[in-house]
Amino acid sequence: MSAEATNPEAHPEARPELRRRGRSRLDLRRLGRAALLGPASRDRLPDAIGHVAEAHRAHHPDADLSILRRAYLLAETSHRGQMRKSGEPYITHPLAVTLILAELGAETTTLTASLLHDTVEDTDVTLDQVREEFGSEVCFIVDGVTKVEKIDYGAAAEPETFRKMLVATGNDVRVMSIKLADRLHNMRTLGVMRPDKQARIAKVTRDVLIPLAERLGVQALKTELEDLVFAILHPEEYEETRALIAAHAGERDPLPGIADSVRGVLRDAGIAAEVVVRPRHFVSVHRISRKRGELRGSDFGRVLILVGENADCYAVLGELHTCFTPVVSEFKDFIASPKFNLYQSLHTAVATAEGHVAEVIVRTRQMHRVAEAGVVALGNPYTTPPVDAAEGDEERVDPTRPGWLSRLLDWQQSAPDPDTFWTVLRAELAQDREITVFRADGGTLGLPGGASCIDAAYAQHGEAAHGCIGARVNGRLTSLSSRLSDGDTVQLLLAHDASSGPAADWLDHAKTPAARIAISGWLQTHPDSAAATTTAARAPLSVVGARGGGANAVADLPDAPVRLAGCCTPVPPDAVAGFVVRGGAVTVHRVHCPAVAQMRAVGRTSVAVHWRATADCRVTLLAESFGRPHLLADLTEAIAREGVEVVSATVEPPVEQRVRHSYTLQLPDATGLPALMRAMRDVPGVYDVSRA
């Protein structure tokens, strides 16, 4: 990550509190001199990584630091004589990156790889040497964060480096943890670069690294990266926000008083909790100022409440909503429904008697660790497999391999060139919401917010989704363009015809890169088929036969003609209602037909209706099927075998390989209707038969 450095004090006010209170700030220049001089004794930990050791032991008291000593000695020896652009010894960079990860709670293997992360790229150390000295696990991580050679890839080197890194992250998420810490230190020390290069690096950080930090839940790194990017890309707005925060510093802050009141309430309720005020970072203040206009004193921070158990979170919430006035619209439960990046907390807002409104976050201490450090807080997730993990549920089987990452790894294989990969990657990472839908077989699919049935089809079936002709969402037949919501159950219907392909307008509804790349590829290789799918629809084919006997419903209105409503086609023994319409005729509907409410609303006269003793009846059935030759003939034959007369039939033109048939039938006996519908469903290609 050959980082170009500058003054490490740049933008100090934009940094979140990554270091524990009471610990002195790391003096990179002093440690650089110590690195050049080397340790006083080879029998003890080098002084230059004392801060790393202290931070690591705070999270892992029993950690074996000997491997860190060996990794530091190799890194210091390899980088000796190399300088950063700021004039500091290069070893200060891997030391700073490792300290960031140590303070987040990373385990020893991650820190070892972090110390060595630039050795293979910038020195004569080889991967074989790293593997021999530190094992295959450290070697894999170091290789994952090593850039590809620009001499081999030219302008595509950056996209290909990220592709390589993401593939490695799919096997070991610690690769991306090191990359994020590496980019954070580089962003902190970016001031000696030319402004145009600063802007280029900041844009890549904004478009790729910050979204990845958000998805991996590493909020401590994400918030500082946001502030540093904000200062570079939007200097005027950054200065305005800094002035806002500086002005607020001289005013009375109501949040400490609110925090004291909350402590008293929880103490009286017997709930052990830690209550602190957390200032908002720069970008958060900027966003809330855009949202609310003039800021109140309580808008510059939030009250954070840490408790021991999940149940305590809800106990705290109850006390808050009892003793203060809750702002109902601000309540969110991310404990019952965690975010896709492992984040869990209760969010609420309360108003005090003085009129101050404070946002409050309630979480356990473990939730707080995960909220700050994300996947880094999981330690080494590969040592022990998850217990009782449900098969096929990637969000639960391996929390370090969430659905979005699996999707990304799938579609990147199909990206035809680095430019397409780079463009689609940025678009994919711009999606800031994730939904989970249930498959008909009981599994789940993780999809971005706003995904359609088309996206679900390609996520579940890959290229076989080219033959998808429809879907059922929550049991109801719907088009492939329908958008899915979190928690929906989707059943995808595939054509049996292997030559079936997607329509050109699928691209208008596909949101995931995997679906868009697959559809575009098919359309490019089948230009004639693509053109055919956009031709104008033909008129429906109608077949009308001899009309059978009259309706067998009788109205309590002498001499009034009776007709069965075509919208619901009632048959015995359906419960029915009759209404007098123009001309004095009585129209008969099923009582649950929507038209009944409309008739009553417009004041139509209601008439009692009953069925004749005769059992014959007329009914309209809708058949949904896959398109295939001879389908109409086979359906008509199945109807005839049941002794039913076809009064009329309408066949709509195929839409997405799906054909809709409408039959008006005269049945000799209403009790034969279920058997008739089963016989029609048994016709090959028919997947649904229902009454109109």
Characterize the structure shown.
With 692 residues, the protein is α+β, with helices and mostly antiparallel strands. The protein contains 27 helices and 22 strands.
Features:
692 residues, alpha+beta, 6-stranded mixed beta sheet, 5-stranded mixed beta sheet, 22 strands, globular
Q: Label the structural class.
A: alpha+beta
Using the CA coordinates, give the radius of gyration.
34 Å
Number of strands: 22
Annotation field: number of helices: 27
For the termini, the CA-CA separation is 65 Å
Overall mean pLDDT stands at 79
Beta-strand content: 15-25%
* Main sheet characteristics: 6 strands, mixed
Provide a concise account of the structure shown:
With 692 residues, the protein is of the alpha+beta class. Helix content is 42%, strand content 17%. Strands 1, 2, 3, 4, 5 and 6 form a 6-stranded mixed beta sheet that branches. Strands 8-7-11-9-10 form a 5-stranded mixed beta sheet.
Write the layout of secondary structure elements.
Blueprint: H1 28-37, H2 50-59, H3 66-79, H4 92-104, H5 108-115, H6 119-122, H7 127-134, H8 136-145, H9 150-153, H10 157-171, H11 174-188, H12 195-215, H13 219-233, H14 235-249, H15 255-268, E1 274-279, H16 282-292, E2 301-307, H17 310-323, E3 325-326, E4 332-333, E5 346-351, E6 357-364, H18 365-373, H19 394-397, H20 403-412, H21 418-429, E7 434-439, E8 444-448, H22 453-461, E9 468-473, E10 476-478, E11 489-494, H23 513-525, H24 527-533, E12 541-544, E13 553-555, E14 562-564, E15 576-580, E16 586-590, H25 594-601, E17 606-607, E18 609-611, E19 617-626, H26 631-641, E20 645-651, E21 658-667, H27 673-681, E22 686-691
Helix pairs in contact: 2-4, 3-5, 4-5, 4-11, 5-8, 7-8, 8-10, 8-11, 10-20, 11-12, 11-13, 12-13, 13-14, 14-16, 20-23
